[in-house]
Write a structure and sequence with these properties.
alpha+beta, outer membrane lipoprotein receptor (LolB), chain A, twelve-stranded mixed sheet, 5 helices, 19% helix, 39% strand, globular
Length: 256
């Protein structure tokens, strides 16, 4: 909208616009502005991170959409949902559901349990002492990537600002009826946007991530609903196998 307004204002101020051939209008391409990292946009991320660090216990429900490329090379959008229950520094339960799978992850500070409700299989792996370390281990050692695991890097001091090639404020808007500030960022291989709640609780309400280094430009989107004062049951961060569940081994990527 800002670009359209600028172009319209420019046309009004140029009396020669009407003399250009129609074909030149049709093929004219706007010249991109020089990318820059706006300090105010980076500061907004810092404020969000500082707020998330104040949350010791919280629950986030995510509604997600993820693009996949099918065998015909077409982008297919798949919906899903995930619920994160968090007790810092060493309690985490994640329930995920997508069209192709359901999973539950339970971390108790010493062990991560991965449970597949569809088959009844579960596996246990030793884990480090914090949520952030555990998520990094799961991704690096076992190839387990969870939706918006970035929540736990943002909230513990994220250094991604160093790799930004562009950062700017888009405008004020609403996400599911909640006032929000919309920002856009770029870094090598990734274009991403974030909508941060307006006011003194600047939690992320929506995130969109695009793989800019993939010709298909697949996109991931998540809408986040926050409960910052949850009442967790005593056994929330302990896994009890259901009847007839079977334990199996899960091997690191290097051993597969």
């Amino acid at each position: 909208m800002r670009l359209a307004t600028l172009m319209f204002a420019t046309a009004l101020g140029c009396g020669a616009v009407g003399t250009l051939p129609l074909t030149e209008h049709a093929h004219a391409q706007p010249v991109p502005a020089t990318a820059q990292v706006e300090p105010a946009a980076v500061e907004a991320l810092a404020r969000m991170s500082a707020y998330l660090r104040t949350l010791q216990n919280f629950q986030v429900v995510m509604q997600t959409q993820r693009d996949d490329v099918d065998v015909y090379g077409q982008l297919i959008t798949l919906g899903g949902n995930a619920t994160y229950k968090v007790r810092r520094p060493n309690g985490l339960t994640i329930d995920m559901a997508t069209p192709s799978m359901t999973r539950q992850y339970v971390y108790d500070g010493k062990t991560v349990t991965v449970f597949d409700p569809g088959t009844g299989y579960f596996a246990k792996i030793p884990a480090p002492g914090t949520i952030r370390e555990t998520l990094a281990m799961a991704a690096d050692k076992y190839g387990v990537d969870l939706p918006l695991a970035d929540l736990f890097t943002w909230s513990e001091g994220d250094d991604r600002a160093r790799s930004l090639t562009s950062a700017h404020f888009i405008g004020k808007t609403q996400v599911n009826g909640q006032p929000a500030n919309h920002y856009a960022f770029r870094q090598p291989g990734i274009d991403w946007q974030i909508w941060i709640a307006d006011g003194d609780r600047p939690a992320p309400l929506r995130a969109v991530i695009v793989a800019s280094d993939d010709p298909a430009r697949p996109q991931f989107q998540a809408d986040l609903a926050w409960d910052v004062a949850p009442q967790f049951a005593q056994d929330t961060f302990a896994f009890t196998p259901p009847a007839n569940a079977r334990q199996i081994q899960i091997h690191p990527l290097a051993e597969r």
